[in-house]
Amino acid sequence: MPDVNGSLSVSSPVRGTALSLETVPDPVFSQGMVGPGVAVHPEPGQEGGQEGTQEAVAPIDGTLAKLHPHAFVVMAHDRRRGVLVHLGIDTVKLKGEGFLLLAEEGAEVSAGTPIVRWSPGSVAARGLPTVVPVVALDAAPGALHSFTDGHVASGGPLFTWE
């Protein structure tokens, strides 16, 4: 949500461990090709085990501009800033299997609104990384600050975008 000086607080879409985007095993994310951000390594799902599920939530208030089973983009109300959430790496290969859409593209959402239910354990069982890149699309170098490092709750602060 933008504050009075125009900065945008971005929250974590999942609970887990926040680490540098450089830890993501995909150069598109690790080298910041689509923008800077943070990687969240998710914790096991609420029900535990390989099939435990969790909900990925909107990281900011705005419009759900793009929605795929494995990824979504929320555009801020200022229409200048978009945040990409990518659930796992190479998960497009799953063709939606193991992901349940909880919202519709074009919907107005608030930070914390459930967008997709998924199972990180199920993704891992298929041999795919479960890391969740949270990217400030096309942000200028140095535009992000106040990064969270370590444990982060779903909906907890992740970084600030100036």
From TrEMBL:
**What is this protein called in UniProt?**
PTS glucose transporter subunit IIA
Coarsely, its chief localization is cytoplasm
Enumerate the subcellular locations listed in this protein's record, separating them with semicolons: Cytoplasm
Q: Where is the PTS EIIA type-1 domain?
A: 26-138
Q: Pfam families from the xrefs?
A: PTS_EIIA_1
Q: Does the keyword Transferase apply?
A: yes
Q: Does the keyword RNA-binding apply?
A: no
Gene3D superfamilies in the cross-refs: Glucose Permease (Domain IIA) (2.70.70.10)
Name the InterPro entries for this protein. Answer: Dup_hybrid_motif (IPR011055), PTS_EIIA_1_perm (IPR001127), PTS_EIIA_component (IPR050890)
* Record's keyword terms, sorted: Kinase, Phosphotransferase system, Sugar transport, Transferase, Transport
Q: Which domain of life is it from?
A: Bacteria
